[in-house]
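Q: Could you write out the predicted structure for this multi-component system? I'm mainly interested in how the pieces pack against one another.
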Amino acid sequence: MNKRLLTLLLTIVIVMGAIGTIPVGAQDDCDFAGEIYVGVIAPLTGDIPKVGQSTVEAAEMAVEEINAECGLEIDGESYEIVIIVEDNESKAESSVAVATRLIVEEDVIAIIGPQSSKQAVPTGQVANDRETPMISPWSTNPNTTVDRPWVFRVAFLDPFQGPVVANFVQAEFGAASAAVLYDVASDYPKGLAENFRDAAEASGIEVVAFESFTTGDTDFSSQLTTIIAEEPAVIFTPQYYNEVPLIVQQARELGFEGPIVGSDSWGTPDLIELCGDACNGLFFSTHYAPDIATEVGQTFINAYEEIYGAKPDDVAALTYDAFQLLFTAIEDAQSLDKADVRDALAGIELFEGVTGVMSFDEQGDPIKCAVIIQIKDGAFTYYDSACPAGFPPEGM
Amino acid sequence: MEFFVQQFFNGLQLGSLYALIALGYTMVYGVLLLINFAHGDIFMVGAFLGVFGSMVLDLPFALTLVLAMVLTGMMGVGIERVAYKPLRQASRLSVVITALGVGLLLENGMLALTGADPRSYPANFIETKAYDSFLGIGLGDVSITNVKILIIVLAALLFLGLYTIVQRTKWGMAMRAISYDKFAVPLMGVSQDQVISITFFLGTALAAAGGILWGVAFPVLNPYMGLRVGWKAFIAAVVGGIGDIRGAAVGGLLLGFIEIFVPAYGKSIGISSTWRDPIAFGLLLIILVVRPTGLFGVARRQKV
């Protein structure tokens, strides 16, 4: 009996293993000369699993599409794209470990991810040290790419996003004072909170409270009571979708009636479900809005909806853009050498993606527009756009 | 003044929750001298059973609470039978490692079962209302909600209930007796297994109550939620004097108040809210340096 059970278990393991190795979107009618491995690092478990899910969905879609067209053509030979997905558990140390593994053991040509700056900043160091191109789709903290020629991204930066939110708060609410509540232990909220504070003070908004907590906290009542006692016109909180509902609900329970404003980390649809009525009517800045999608964007949105049955969030859109950018670079390079791919990535001047037109500066950071989204009747609705001066260029 | 009153109630709510969870740690330790490191994850299971009761079975709050407490209590008894009982003669270290293993099993089992997406209770589970006045006193800008009152009152009632059971009933006497001398008690004709089962039932049922109340106050539940809360409650139990249920209650409240008041008043003396944890745990360390057995603990003599 025991032996039989063991055999059965072994069979299951072998079958599962075999299923796991089937490449995604393999095409029978294409004559592939070889495979190109691309590593994907995403938070599949941990605090923000929805971000991981969107990453993988968009990645699989991008790869299936390109393989359906017989992959990438290099010197007349077509190559199949194979993605290797690694979970970083939403932790910096796991992210660094899986990045090293992808580079050393799997020999990937490039890494797409990680998403949060908390993981992207240290992982960028690994990619740069080991001379492997890395594109973080969602990271907005400047440190991810600073002085790292091998690291790129498709999201705008927090020094841009901070002023966007500050200007919006002033224009929309005529706010003369603001308070900030942020996670001091995470790169993204900390950086953006400081960018917002500086931008707000520069434009005459008094920041009356600048309160922090640490990752994993669920009780914000002490900080919120302090904030409310200072009577700010608005509260800005650049937190993730698992924290925003708690912050908003607790702020309302403690009697704060003013607007609460957020940033691109809010844009996961689960936020609406977890937050319920409390978040209705609130605003945040982010990378793209499905309602104003260009032709490129609309094609992606329709295809994504058809496969996964839901509108893609900003993470999915940016991940898809990151893949398109990588594909463009590999085809431009006409080489499977990582250094050539890096040079080609650095050489891309203007790129039109799902999240809009972007050009790149010398750090590998995109210059692009941001949008303001309002949470309205259980959906993210486009409200306004904010672009850097002189952007997008004429005719785009 | 309003600021202080508001922060006082914030602290009372958080402290009551810590206390409720610390009670389970302390009960199991008191009887078995076992630090049940799976307790935080049992707390998580309780919170998720609340989701099951309220979302799937569509039960009202009170029934969900009772159902989750009973089911989690039974699970606690089961865990003790399967994982801890065979190790009763083994070294204490083996049991502690087993407890950590049970915790991992619960965490990852829940992850596999429900997925990693955070959950919350339905909107009609408890409708949050703020009171205008409390005991006839106008509240002004102080916001006290029915949820805060519910948590504080329920935690106090559960503590009093437990205290009565341990101090005034035969079973409670048996628990205290086993804690005192686990070899002599069976000689008196009291079933050691039964007493331990009851202890586990009560301890884990309280964790479930804590889990559901936690979920009502902070409605974003995930399979890892028990980790931090678990170790904080453990620290509260140790500071109060592990093994003493009054100590767990006092330790929990103390930790809650420190966590709320340090960021609240630290700023006025130039300490930012970032310093909350170093100061909170530094204070608790000082208490342990002065009283190594915790506030209510008594040193146990070990015969060598």
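A: Regarding packing and overall arrangement: Residues 166 and 172 of chain A are 10 Å apart (CA to CA).
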